[in-house]
Amino acid sequence: MKKISLLLLVLISASFVLSGCVGGEEGEVLSNKEVTKNSEENLELSGKAYEEGAAELCDKIADENKKNACKTSIILNKAVSEKNPEECEKIEDQILKSKCLSVTSSPN
Question: Which residues have a Cβ under 8 Å from the Cβ of 14 and sit 6 or more positions away?
Answer without folding.
Answer: none
